[in-house]
Write a structure and sequence with these properties.
The complex is a heterodimer of chains A (108) and B (186). With 108 residues, chain A is an all-alpha fold. In chain A, 81% of the residues lie in helices and 2% in strands. The two termini of chain B are 21 Å apart. The chains are: A mainly alpha (108), B mainly alpha (186). At the A-B interface, α1, α2, α3, β1 and α4 of A face α5, β1, α6 and β2 of B.
């Protein structure tokens, strides 16, 4: 039973990683690609790590896996935010079919 | 303004001007040492000794960060209750956002309507705003690009803009997290 849950989590993780990678290729600009990147990190890596920790059971490895997941969880949004903010500050344009850019309008 | 505030905090920390309980250094040390023991997973004397040295050093540097403010507020059970309730709500939001973005990725014509919108927030504390911005960035489909302090709002890149008005964006993007975070951090 435990193994089945673990394999389901690992499968979801692998699927999310592949779909996220596809998204990074398909999406049109930096900001949209960061959304796909978030799918890879949260759905791909963190769910895979959770699956690995379920498979491992209660041991010191589980603790380490969970701490790795926690650190990814804490650092990924900081990195994504920094990339997006730097891109916008350095004048990377939004995709031509974007509907609105309030940041450009209100804080030029 | 931001840098002045940071400097202010740093001066307070370095001079120990914040009134802190005497035991907070010791409590920090014990927490760090227990974490070390749990992570190394052995009770070997050498491991314990090195752990004690490292934990003592880190505790001396950082105990002011852990025990800032009033202790009574830290152990307010209501806040911890809301923090616990936040976990399933957060997972649910995360799940929905993933399904949404995966749908956009796999759809042949990619029906996205991206744009940057302003999301006002009523959160006051630094921790609350950081938590909200991080939660928004961690859910695929929304990405905080800029945090503006003077009009207390976030500028969020939204993969499928459904509304531009501040009330609507706040309700749709921030509210699922904000209703917990305002109770946890204020």
């Amino acid at each position: 039973m435990i193994e089945i849950i673990a394999y389901i989590l690992l499968g979801i993780g692998a699927a999310c990683a592949i779909i996220g990678a596809l998204g990074i290729v398909r999406f049109p600009d930096v900001y949209n690609r960061i959304h796909a990147n978030t799918v890879v990190v949260v759905g791909g890596v963190i769910v895979t790590l959770l699956g690995a920790s379920v498979l491992e059971g209660l041991s010191s490895y589980t603790l380490k896996i969970l701490i790795i997941a926690l650190f990814l969880f804490l650092t990924n949004p900081v990195g994504s935010h920094a990339i997006a903010r730097a891109a916008h500050k350095s004048g990377v344009k939004l995709w031509r079919r974007s509907v609105v850019d309030k940041l450009e309008e209100e804080k030029p | 303004m931001q840098s002045e505030k940071l400097k202010f905090d740093f001066v307070l920390l370095s001079k120990g001007a914040i009134p802190m309980a005497k035991g907070s250094l010791f409590v920090t040390f014990v927490c760090l040492w227990l974490a070390w023991i749990a992570l190394t997973g052995s009770l070997n004397f050498q491991e314990l000794a090195v752990g004690a040295i490292v934990a003592a050093f880190v505790a001396m540097v950082s105990y002011g960060l852990l025990f800032r403010g009033k202790m009574r507020e830290k152990f307010d059970l209501k806040r911890w209750g809301y923090a616990l309730a936040y976990v399933p709500a957060y997972f649910w939001a995360e799940l929905k956002a993933h399904a949404n973005v995966i749908y956009y990725i796999l759809h042949p014509r990619m029906p996205i309507k991206p744009g940057i919108v302003r999301v006002p927030t009523k959160l006051q504390s630094d921790f609350g705003i950081t938590g909200l911005a991080n939660a928004i960035t961690m859910t695929p489909g929304t990405l905080s690009v800029e945090v503006s302090e003077e009009d207390s709002s976030l500028y969020v890149h939204w993969i499928n803009v459904k509304a531009v008005e501040p009330e609507q964006t706040s309700k749709q993007i921030a509210w699922p997290f904000e209703r917990f975070l305002r109770r946890i951090f204020g």
